[in-house]
Amino acid sequence: MLRPNMGRDAQDYVSRVTVDELKISVEGAGEQEFMRWDQLQWVVIEATMEEEGRSLMWRLQGLGVRRCRIPFGIEGEQLMLAKLQNLPGFDVLAVAEALCGSDAGRFICWRRDRSV
To answer: What pTM value is reported for the model?
Structure first.
């Protein structure tokens, strides 16, 4: 499963994300971990202000403590986004707000309990 407490070093850890019909896989540091789509509970974009400027990170939460942070611009991100956009009730406006904003914040793109 995905590292339960992946911290701010996610950009150093994660090198690639891949998706298929059953799961999302994250590769990095010689390891591959995954989360099944049916375990996914919510998707958030976190915007933080750092010395280098504004940084965006995907945060996927699964059942229990399963979660993952995936930096924007990582290999496979566009395919992941296409799959996420197929989730019922996925909020593309939240993605646009995260991309166009200039402040730090959290942008909730999808929650399982709101998709029914």
So the answer is: 0.82
